[in-house]
């Protein structure tokens, strides 16, 4: 396994841990149209993608990764992470399989609920919905992943199981408005 290949599972784990941590405890460029009710949550120059979230969500842009979350008692959150793939023929399936054991180790009762075809800005990918308990709290996640130009893009929505349904429509809108490029 090469260094780049070893980093792939880290993307899954980093997204899950960052969202779990968030759950437990900008203006648009002129050439980008901000969808109504949303705001820009990424730095397209730094990240290489454009990502919008609901206006009421707080945004954290510290690196090329993007994280946004609800405020108050609802700590539901979303994160966009990218990772360079070793081979140009790498797939989302290969990425998922390389990290599944880490998810099973992180969550005592990890369950893959569904897996289906999905798209990010026209790029074919997959959507994974899974759940698990961490530190006594039940969480549920949806990850949409696609490969473009030798890079995997992973958008992860996470919430406590009791709040899961409350942001699915917003997450769908975030995925629908995701754009590659600067």
Task: Describe the structure in your own words.
- The protein is built from four helices and eleven strands.
- It has helices spanning 3-24, 44-47, 92-106, 168-177; strands at residues 38-40, 49-50, 52-54, 58-60, 66-69, 77-84, 111-120, 123-134, 137-148, 151-160, 179-180.
- A seven-stranded antiparallel beta sheet has the order 4-5-6-10-9-8-7, with helices on both faces. The chain has a two-stranded antiparallel ribbon with strand order 1-3.
- A hairpin with a 2-residue loop joins strand 9 (137-148) and strand 10.
- Helix 1 (3-24) packs across helix 3.
- It starts with a helix and ends with a strand.
- 34% of the residues are buried.
- Residues 22-31 have low confidence and may be disordered.
Give a brief rundown of this model.
This protein is α+β, with helices and mostly antiparallel strands and 182 residues long.
What features would you highlight for this structure?
Protein Transport Mog1p, Chain A, alpha+beta, 182 residues, 28% helix, two-stranded antiparallel sheet, 4 helices, 7-stranded antiparallel β-sheet
CATH superfamily: Mog1/PsbP, alpha/beta/alpha sandwich
| Intertermini distance | 32 Å
Radius of gyration: 15 Å
Mean model confidence by pLDDT? 83
Estimate nothing, just give the exact number of structural domains. Answer: 1
**If helices are DSSP runs of H or I spanning 4 or more residues, what is the number of helices?**
4
Helix share bin: 25-40%
The tally of strands reads: 11
Q: What order do the strands of the largest sheet run in, or round the barrel if closed?
A: 4-5-6-10-9-8-7
Q: What is the architecture at the second tier of CATH? A: 3-Layer(aba) Sandwich
Task: Please report which band the strand proportion falls in: under 5%, 5-15%, 15-25%, 25-35%, 35-45% or over 45%.
Answer: 35-45%
Please mark out the parts with pLDDT under 50 across 5 or more consecutive residues, or reply none: 22-31
Order of helices and strands: HEHEEEEEHEEEEHE
Q: In the CATH scheme, what's the topology name?
A: Protein Transport Mog1p, Chain A
Largest sheet: 7 strands, antiparallel
Q: How does the overall form come out from the CA principal axes?
A: globular
Write down the CATH class.
Alpha Beta
Structural class assignment: alpha+beta
């Amino acid at each position: 396994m090469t260094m780049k290949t070893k980093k792939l599972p880290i993307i899954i784990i980093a997204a899950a841990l960052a969202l779990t941590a968030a759950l437990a405890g900008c203006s648009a460029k002129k050439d980008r149209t901000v969808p109504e009710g949303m705001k820009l949550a990424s730095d397209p120059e730094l990240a290489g993608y454009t990502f919008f979230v609901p206006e009421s969500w707080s945004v954290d842009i510290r690196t090329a990764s993007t994280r946004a979350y609800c405020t108050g008692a609802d700590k539901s959150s979303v994160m966009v992470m990218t990772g360079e793939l070793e081979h140009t023929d790498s797939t989302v399936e290969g990425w998922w399989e390389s990290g599944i054991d880490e998810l099973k180790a992180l969550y005592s009762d990890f369950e893959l609920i569904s897996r289906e075809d999905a798209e990010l800005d026209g790029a074919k990918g997959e959507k994974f919905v899974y759940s698990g308990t961490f530190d006594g709290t039940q969480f549920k996640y949806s990850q949409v992943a696609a490969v473009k130009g030798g890079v995997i893009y992973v958008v992860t929505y996470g919430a406590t199981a009791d709040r899961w349904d409350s942001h699915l429509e917003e997450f769908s809108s975030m995925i629908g408005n995701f754009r590659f490029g600067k």
